[in-house]
Structures are given as structure tokens and as C-alpha cells.
Amino acid sequence: MSTHTLITLNTKKLSAQERKNNDNSFRKYKNTVQVTTNHKTRTLKNV
User: Superkingdom of this entry's organism (predicted)?
Assistant: First the structure.
């Protein structure tokens, strides 16, 4: 069974509220990664 299939099955088990929470967590995580990347780029440019 592939990872994708497992994720799909797990998503179906979650309630709408839990799905929303996961969505928000993922968005926060993505934003954090983005900020970190931007910061690294700026730091390199300053050197």
C-alpha cells in the first residue's frame, strides 16, 4: 500500500474540524519554511 493511499484513508476518518486543524497546521508549517528560506537568502546576500 502506498503512502498516498494511507493518507487518503486517514483523511476520511478525520472529522471536518480535525481536517481544518490539520490544514491550518500545514499552512503554518509552509509559512515557517518560506520565512526560513527567505532569511537564509537575505543572510547570504549580506555577506
Answer: Eukaryota
Rounded to an integer, what is the distance from CA 21 to the centroid of its chain? 11
Helix (H) or strand (E) holding 26: helix 16-46
Residue tagged 503554518 (cell numbers): 28
pLDDT digits (tens, 9 = 90+) for 11-25: 566 677 777 887 888
Residue partners of 19: CB distance under 8 A and separation at least 6: 11
Cα dist from 28 to 4, 21, 34, whole Å:
22, 11, 10
pTM above 0.85?
no
